[in-house]
Amino acid sequence: MADKHILVIGGGIVGLSAAWYLVGRGAAVTVVERDRIAASASAGNAGIVAIGHRPLPWPGRSRQALSWLLDRSSPLYIPPRLDLSLLKWLWGFHRACRAERVAECMEIIGPLDRLSLRCWEEILAAIGVACGWQRAGWLDVYASAAGRRQAEQEAAVSRQFGVRTEQLDGDALRERDPAFSEQVHGAVLYPESCILDPGRFLTGLVGDLRAAGVTIREETAVQRFLRRDNRCSGAVLVGGEEIAADEVVLAACAWSNPLVCDAGVKLPMQAGKGYHLDLVAPDPAPRSGCVLVESSVAVTPMGDKLRLAGTLEFSGLNLHLHRRRVDMLRRAAAPYFRGVAEAREREAWCGLRPCTADGLPVIDRAPQLDGLFLATGHAKMGLTHGPGTGKLIAEWLLDGEPSLDLSLLRADRF
Ligand SMILES: Cc1cc2nc3c(=O)[nH]c(=O)nc-3n(C[C@H](O)[C@H](O)[C@H](O)COP(=O)(O)OP(=O)(O)OC[C@H]3O[C@@H](n4cnc5c(N)ncnc54)[C@H](O)[C@@H]3O)c2cc1C
Q: Which domains occur in the chain, in start order?
């Protein structure tokens, strides 16, 4: 196997996990990353390995999205513009919110959840990085009657697909985690989930990959694919340098679109910008990873800092940080926790989620270009499913087929 050279495009959780499984099986691997390694959404996300989390399209979600669009303080923001690809994407999203379609999605999300959790534990045990990994569950926390109804309805649907949940009233929640304020009514616990500091994890993973002999090239962007006999045989970098490879894995998040087009595939994918605000951990420091139902803001303790993360902004492929949206994170979280309103700010950040219209990733061979594998579109679940995706890609590439049936994740399904 060592004579097989694999080129991985994109140094986020998906590309680096694929590299880890590939090098572990003896392949020679090069990762190219247009920016700094481990600085993308994969490092800046909320740090929740969310087992049982729902895909972005969900029954009732398109109606909720319409009302959010009229509310400037809501988690959703779409600056008005005429963009045909966005309009098509929104229509596809609306159609994917049908209950039958969501049921279909959950058929693959469940197995992907379980595989990924095993992969997380396998990688963590092997690389031994201290990244605050806790298998203590994730909470959907509410502070209103409407929030409670929403959390309970969503939990009921998740349970139909075999996801375990537990209901906690406000007192039980405060007993578990005294940082929650008296304004919190209760929560639904998803006990199989985990939290971690994703930036620290990725730094450890990159160190392990380098030690295993993976070549990692930062600030190196791929412009197009190399072809020989209608087969992908590597990539051409911006600047003209060519990298030859036996097989190529494309894991370039929302930036995958132009490269995917170069391979003859059309993916309805939008960049869903999200923000984080890192605070110095308040006293008492929250211990649990949670999502606040009323605002969809995630709150995750990460050692001496507390990360508030969320909002979904469809403003194209850019990393402009809108301060107003960062401030909304703190305003949304302050009523739920003592000390958050005053806590000192450490860092404000934004990054992009790769969002397909139907909420499912694409994990597939490129239908029209042999030798190219696509691994993208994980939207708000990429941290959760990145390691499992990496393993499946390595199996497909080295064994000829993946151990899960991935037909729901085909690139030509749209
Ligand atoms: C605010 C926020 C909170 C989130 N919270 C969670 C969470 O709690 N749990 C969860 O499961 N998921 C979460 N997510 C989603 C998750 O972070 C993403 O789905 C995941 O990081 C996507 O990983 P990736 O490897 O596909 O993409 P990325 O991490 O973006 O990596 C892709 C890399 O490819 C590089 N690249 C692009 N084009 C090229 C090119 N041409 N040549 C070379 N390199 C290129 C990019 O620079 C980038 O570094 C969150 C996302 C956000 C924004």
A: 5-43+200-268+361-413 (3.50.50.60), 52-195+269-356 (3.30.9.10)
